[in-house]
């Protein structure tokens, strides 16, 4: 990578030093674009790809149409646009890629040595469009281009393997469409020849091996010939071991090999998937920005769950080891982005005392990496000149991350610091069960289980009825019922919608919560005078979209002969993304310096929303909090219908909120919340300036508070991630406030009712405070449990009004 970074720096400097009308400029731009494209292929940084497209396009634009080199530049444009299509799925990029690649071929004589390369670009783009739209004509044309590229390339040419691999991919795609066995056989032959022509340490060899393995695996599934299975697994395992290949290619190879062996040899399959899980941090290293990390991890969603399920399915392994190993995989393969930041925010007191220089540099680098890329780069370079382009920012961010790795290596080399900023082991995590068990779910096509962490160790409860297909069906039905339950139309059957909600809560009890609580011995409510037991849910993936804390048969709980069959009537529930995140939250529970302070952010009106997004009960909610909580600081949106005004520092802007967060103990937000449907890092609380400077999940990442104890997010969907590919990452506002340093956070799983939300807030703080305004934030989970349970008793038929609120954290 150092060679590639240096190539890009030299290429950029050459372009900048060359006049715009210089005849060599196009060639220099092309070289720069090629290098940027190569770095994108390795790391997946979109800024590199965008810069590569810009450079290639400019090279083509400044070159006369009859110039012999124009075809090179057009082909580069096509290749880069096709790569961007594969990242974002924008069909216009793909159509433009095909046009540019075809123009390059048409402008090239048949005996030109570069013609094969241009034909290969045409093949890749046409095959991508076939996979998107399904037009067989595109696939046939792609195959023709790939075959011509092979035919005109000498047998000893270094690029011949590329073209052969393309032939194999196109033939495999045609077999999957038409089922002609000859196509599959030819695909395997072409892929095998590509592998044989490639040196064992070449980074492209992993891709060629993967293509061979995929084709052999398809033939095995069709014919059942064991030699095909063995050869497919061998090819994929070898691909995963090519150290010079991109980590994402190696992960896909290992995952595919494990998938082929899952039914026949779950033990070996589990080992292969475990190796792939261990590579995930390299797929999305800290040096990449958040959006690139999310995209790269989203494409590998569910990998840790597959690995854990296969570990549990390996009956040849000792039973007492399987559960612990499975839990370790889920801990290391889920919530990676959160874990990266949490790992570097431990207590530095001893390090500062013994090694102040190292501690200071570690802190500087950590804070740079916690910032959004544009900010961190400016701080890192201390450059007063023009802001760098995004590709340069991305490179500089990686350099900061590389220096952080060196500093971490130095720190871990010191006596007593060997585990500094490393993920906790399963043994480390066992200590987190002292206050109550932690239940980690894994809903998977191979098998579904709950892993129970107690002070005695880790055990598992099989959940055979909790299949992904069934869970997805219930999730869709649940959220549709929630929407129907608040439908304002006169003819809406809201009672029937609430009935569907109750039915799904009962199903969630029968299939998930009840088996877990029974296994843990929580078979009923505690005896009078006894403390309610606590339990932490780490739902992971699909179950994070359903309210485990509200599972149960709520309308039957008082029926004669019926045991208390609800979670609310047996335990106090809390949530955590992982056990490591719970450990992090508990590191922030030391008493803050007295006196406590409270920040109240109230948005009874929201600029830019229809009818100003009126929340009439917010004013009442804020007034109640002012009267009850210690040293309240109120930021509130002024009423535009009256002459009421507010000083600038009293208006709830993001800047005003951030200014106060460093000093407060409790933060309460009564406002609209918005869960972003595709990029959860852009989920936000809608404050006064939400359209200009939103308070998003991403903007909270740099925040690292010392005095914070409780954040109450009285807003819609603040504990919800909507992008299904990122469910394992738990990216939402509730976890963002946990990361910022709040050990207790109250969030919501769906849209909440304004009036009832204010009532829940009032009842919660009534239970949490005394007459002297002393607040026991460590009782937050109990206070919410008692509040919701009481409201449930009043409104058992309308769970949508009381089941959304949850407690997350310590």
Gross morphology is globular
Low-confidence stretches: 375-385
Report how far apart the termini are.
41 Å
Biggest sheet statistics = 6 strands, mixed
Q: How do the strands line up in the largest sheet? A: 7-6-8-12-13-14
- How many distinct beta strands? 14
Average pLDDT, all residues = 93
Helix content: 40-55%
Supply the helix-strand structural class. alpha/beta
Q: Please tally the helical runs, counting DSSP H or I stretches of 4 or more residues.
A: 31
The proportion of residues in beta strands is 5-15%
Radius of gyration: 29 Å
Notable features of this structure?
810 residues, alpha/beta, six-stranded mixed β-sheet, five-stranded mixed β-sheet, 14 strands, globular
What does this structure look like?
There is one protein chain. The strands form three sheets. A six-stranded mixed beta sheet has the order 7-6-8-12-13-14, sandwiched between helices. The protein has a five-stranded mixed beta sheet with strand order 3-2-1-4-5, sandwiched between helices. A three-stranded antiparallel beta sheet has the order 9-10-11. A hairpin with a 6-residue loop joins strand 1 and strand 2. It is of the alpha/beta class and 810 residues long. 54% of the residues lie in helices and 8% in strands. Helix 8 packs antiparallel against helix 9 (181-196), helix 19 (356-370) runs antiparallel to helix 20 and helix 26 packs parallel to helix 30. It has 31 helices and 14 strands. The chain starts with a helix and ends with a strand.
Q: What's the helix and strand layout?
A:
Layout: H1 2-16, H2 25-43, H3 46-61, H4 70-88, H5 91-106, H6 115-133, H7 136-151, H8 160-178, H9 181-196, H10 205-223, H11 226-240, H12 247-261, H13 266-283, H14 290-298, H15 303-313, H16 319-333, H17 336-343, H18 349-354, H19 356-370, H20 373-381, H21 390-412, H22 426-430, E1 438-442, E2 449-454, E3 457-462, H23 468-485, H24 494-520, E4 534-538, E5 572-575, H25 579-586, E6 598-602, H26 617-628, E7 632-636, H27 654-661, E8 666-670, E9 672-674, E10 684-686, E11 695-696, H28 697-700, E12 710-714, H29 733-740, E13 744-748, H30 754-768, H31 780-794, E14 805-809
Parallel strand pairs: 1-4, 4-5, 6-7, 6-8, 8-12, 12-13
Antiparallel strand pairs: 1-2, 2-3, 9-10, 10-11, 13-14
